[in-house]
Each structure stands twice: as structure tokens, then as C-alpha cells.
Amino acid sequence: MRILVIEDERKVASFIKRGLEEERYIVETAADGQIGLDLALNNVFDAIVLDVMLPKLDGYSVLRAIRDEGNATPVIMLTARGTTEDRVQGLDLGADDYLSKPFHFEELAARLRSILRRSTTEKTTKLQCGEITLDLVTHFAFRDEKEIELTTKEYALLEYLMRNKDRILSRSMIMQHVWKHNFDPESNIIDVYVKRIRQKIEKPGQTQLITSIRGVGYRMREGGSHEPEVEASAE
Ligand code: CA
Hints:
Bound molecules: calcium ion
Order of helices and strands: EHEHEHEHEHEEEEHEHHEE
Number of domains: 2
Distance between the termini: 27 Å
Structural class: alpha/beta
Number of strands: 12
Strand order of the largest sheet: 2-1-3-4-5
Shape: elongated
């Protein structure tokens, strides 16, 4: 994920940059509004952290110019005064969130994760894992462009696994998201459904896309089950 930080206070900018880099984001910084706007319009970022009080071009003008170009990159505004009018103005101009200075880095990181999550779920219309594609608009699943017939529940489970590709999902997480009720540890319904989906999406002799994580749950990933399965740990 690439983040653009537009902030003229050098200390604040480097504090944000360092923190975000520790969380494995790729970070670019701009020390005034004009440079920031140029960077925002000529590059693709996953999110922008935008200070309001900036030399050359203030944060509101930068935001307005970005949105006028039809650029929908999520923006978090950093407001110094933190008055209601400030916040409202930013949100009216198309900011996704705001944070009043001074703030804790953890809070910025949490807000950033939240808007990144929102933007990926809203803007993505297709999910991909290996040869499997899910069309989130028509709710069809395809393998190499050939439709896979799934029941509603099978589709919901596959979608949940694909939205969380590479993540280990516990049985209770799957239960809550796909079946919307709490996990009955006696039930093997998830295993039954995973087995059915596997039969539909995987070809015999090929790497499994959905790996069973012993004692925990499942994980879907490209390249499947090369790694040893993880033992159950604190859930
Ligand atoms: Ca400033």
C-alpha cells in the first residue's frame, strides 16, 4: 500500500512516515500543498494523509483539486484547530476521515486501516485467487472464464475466503460471517461446505487453493499448501 503524506511540519511528517513504514506501507511525503497535489495527481496512492494548514496551497484546496479531477483516493485530513466547521468542511469536500492534532500514531494507523478497508470493499468488483474469479456484481464464480455453479452459501463462503486471501480464518470467524450465528463447536458444517467448494474449484492433482489449518480453520491462497500447516494457537 502506498501512502502520500502532505504535511509541512517536518517533525510530524517524519513521525508519520516512520510509523507507517514500520507497518510496511510505502510512504512519500510532500512539504507543501502544491507539491502534494502534483504528486497526488500524477501517481497512484492507496490513501493520502493531508494536513489542513499548508504553505502554497492549503489542505482544503488540495482536496478540492484532487476530487475535481475525479480522483477518489481516500483522504484523511489532519486538522489543527479541530473545530466542527473544519471537520465539516473537509468532509463536505470529500475527505474520508479527519484527525485532530495532536494525535497518537496508533489512532492514525487505525483510521488508515479502516478507510483502506472501506475503499477496497467498495471499489472492487472482482476478486481473484489463482484461476478463480468472483464477480461481486453478478455474484458468479469463474474458473478460467468458465462459470462454476455455486449455491448461495457456497458463494458466500468462497467470497469470504477470497476477500481474506492469505489470512488464516478461524472456524468461528467463518461461522459469524457466512452463517451469521455463533459457532457450534460440534458442527462440521464449515468442513462440509469447504469440501464441496474444493470439489468445484480445484482440479485433481493441482495445488489446493484452500488449505486446512489444523485446529484453527482455513486459509485461501495462491500456491496453496506448500507450507506446513500451522498448529492451533491462541485464537
Ligand atoms: Ca501544517
